[in-house]
Design a protein that fits this description.
273 residues, mainly alpha, two-stranded antiparallel sheet, 13 helices, globular, disordered C terminus
Length: 273
Amino acid sequence: MIAGMSESLEHGFSDGFLSEAARNLRAEAQGLYPDLVALLYAINRLAVDLQHQLEVTPDKSNKVTGAVLYARTLASTQASVLLLEHGMPTQARTVLRSSLETLFPLCAIAKEPSKADELLASHDADRRTLADRMKQWKDPELRASIPLSDAELDAILKSPAKATNIFMLAKFADMEDWYHTLYTILSFAAHAKVSDLDAHSVADADGELAGFQNEPVLAGQATVWLWTIEVQLAAMRAVARIFEATDWLQIAESRWQRLHAMAKAGGQLSAAP
């Protein structure tokens, strides 16, 4: 018979991750990786400072789009940290993957400003996808809720707009290796692959399944902290190039070198370059 986590009540996790005990794990999580945490928070402060110093003009689509992508990337990495600090590494990896969805186009724009216009034009492709899904709705009440007529939906479906492709954006930005390593690894968590779901299983001394774990996990997450820092720094470098902020680019580059030196010393450098 497979049992659940019988010790959950004893450890104060009767409400799972919504338990009060789970809200008080931040100091413990940070204590496990003091150097990484200190570096992340220092870089995050710089990243936020850079964000507030960006001067965006509406007539520059590359800067407007770049600033928005940077803001979303930064927010996603911060969300990942909050999840790590509350013992939710799987969810942290899932959110960190979403940060790459905005980092890749951000870096593509840093390389070629016209990519911003391509991204904006892809909005009609997104509308086409949504219209296609609406046409497939079966529930009468759902169909009745559509604010558009069939003719209007058909017109949207005829849009020739080109959809964005995250791999092609990564490749264009010279981040193909990031896609094939970090993005792929994080996708296992996002798509709940079997290899990732195994993290919830608990084995006995004989290696047999004895129960399930659905409580905070703080240990063994140094690599995820490293990845989060890497994403923030990559975003800083990209937006600094877009806004031609030379001083900020130099700051980001120096922190990048410091991070990799630390990672190599600890043998925890990610596969992403």
